[in-house]
Amino acid sequence: MIRFQRVGRTNDPAFRVVLTERRSKPKSGEIEILGSFHPKTKATLLKSERITYWISKGAKTSPRVHNLLITQGVIQGKKINVVRAPRPASTGDAKGEQPVAST
C-alpha cells in the first residue's frame, strides 16, 4: 500500500510517501520511500516512475495519497472525497467524572 508516514516535528507536519505492507504500523519500516509532502508549504517531491511501477504491480493507494497523485499529475482519475471522522462525544462532565446510571 502506498500511504503517508509522518516524519515532521510537533506542529510542523511533514510526510513521506512510502510503500508499506497494508497491515503494518505507520511508524514501522517501509519497503521503499517514494517521495515527500509538506502540507504547510505545499512542497511535494514524488518519484513518479517508481509510483507508477508499484501501482502497475498491484499496490493500492490511501485516499489522501490518491488525491495528491492526481493533483500532481502522476496518475489520471477522479479524486476521492476524504472526510475526517467526527470525534466521539465525551460521556462525562468537565471534571472527567463518569455519569451515574439511574435505575
Question: How would you describe the overall organization of this protein?
Answer:
By secondary structure, the chain is of the alpha+beta class. Helices cover 18% and strands 20% of the residues. The protein has helices spanning 48-56, 63-72, and strands at 2-6, 15-19, 32-38, 43-46. It has a four-stranded antiparallel sheet, covered by helices on one side. The chain is elongated and about 65 Å long. It starts with a strand and ends in a 31-residue tail after the last helix.
Which SSEs are present, and which pair or pack?
Elements (H helix, E strand, L loop, with lengths): L1 E5 L8 E5 L12 E7 L4 E4 L1 H9 L6 H10 L31
Antiparallel strand pairs: 1-2, 2-3, 3-4
Largest sheet: number of strands, sense, barrel closure: 4 strands, antiparallel
Q: Name the structural class.
A: alpha+beta
Strand content: 15-25%
SSE arrangement, N to C: EEEEHH
Structure in a nutshell:
The chain is α+β, with helices and mostly antiparallel strands. Helices cover 18% and strands 20% of the residues.
Features:
103 residues, 2 helices, elongated, alpha+beta, four-stranded antiparallel sheet
